[in-house]
Amino acid sequence: MAAEPAIAEAQDPPVEAGAYSGAMSTEYWFNLRTGEVEEGAQSSWSQLLGPYPTREAASEALKRVKENNEAWEDEESSEHWDDDGGHDRKPTS
After folding, report:
1. What residue spans carry the region label Disordered (predicted)?
2. What does pTM read for this prediction?
3. What are the tens digits of pLDDT across the range 57-69?
């Protein structure tokens, strides 16, 4: 009788330090109604801005929105477009 080949057992590779441990990272949300930062989404999505990676970033959400709106308005006002209702826009000189 011939000997059967040995079957190696499958082993998981060792986990490296700092590797994913299965824990979710914390996300922060700014609540428009209360003006408070929430750790994890606790309120209705219609009241939240985010997610943000830090509490500090979430606390500055309205400042960021205001800056983005101003930049967008400045960009729009610097463009010279014929007012054709959004159809076939061409820059004017």
Report:
1. 65-93
2. 0.54
3. 999 999 999 999 9
